[in-house]
Amino acid sequence: MIDRYRTVRGAGSKEIVIKKSRFIGHVKPVDSEDDANAFIEEIKKLHWNATHNCSAYMIGERDEIQKQSDDGEPSGTAGKPILEVIRNQGLKNVAIVVTRYFGGIMLGAGGLIRAYTDGAVAAIEAGEAITRVLHREIFVEIDYTWLGKVENELRGREVRMGETVFTDKVRLTCLPKDREAETFMSWMVDLTQGQSLITEGEKLYFIEGE
I need a labelling partner for 191 at 20 to 30 A (CA). Which of 55, 77, 151, 208 fits? Predict the structure, then answer.
C-alpha cells in the first residue's frame, strides 16, 4: 500500500458548452477495471442518445491499468486527452467519461482535444480532488490512571483517533500516519513507562486534512 495518493472524493458531473456542442464530464473513484467499465456503461445508458461517450481510466498503485476510448471521435482526440488530464493531475483509481452532444459546428482535431481536456477537468472539479493518506491502527490498552495524561498528550500531537472502549481497562484506537507508526509506538511505551499493552490493527486510508 502506497503512503498517499490523489483521487476524487466521489462521483460528479459538470457540463460545459463549446461552439454549441454540449460536453458533460463525469467522474467516479473506482477500485478495479470492472468498476470502471461498469461506470462507463452506466453513463452510456444514461446518455444513450449522445453523439459520443469518450472515456479513460487509470487504476493501481503504479498506474498499472490505463485504458482510453475515443468512441467514434477521430483517433487520439478524446480518450487520450482525458487520460492525460488524469495523469497530469496525479490521480489514481479514477474513471472519467466525457459525453458529447454535437451542436452542428466542427471543432477540428485541436478543438476536440481542448474540448475533451476541458470536459475532463470539469469532471474532476465536480468530483473534488483529494489526497488519501495511509494510517495504521494502533490499539493502546491502559489503566484508567493513565487516561488523562495519555489523552492530553494525544491531543497535543493531534493524533487521529478512533473508538475508545471502556471495560476494566481503557482501549484507545490511535491512527497515526503509517510512516510514523513505529515512532508512535515507541513514544507511547515511553509515555506510559511501559505500562500499556500496544497492538497493531489494519492499515487504512483517510482524507488529508479531515
Answer: 208
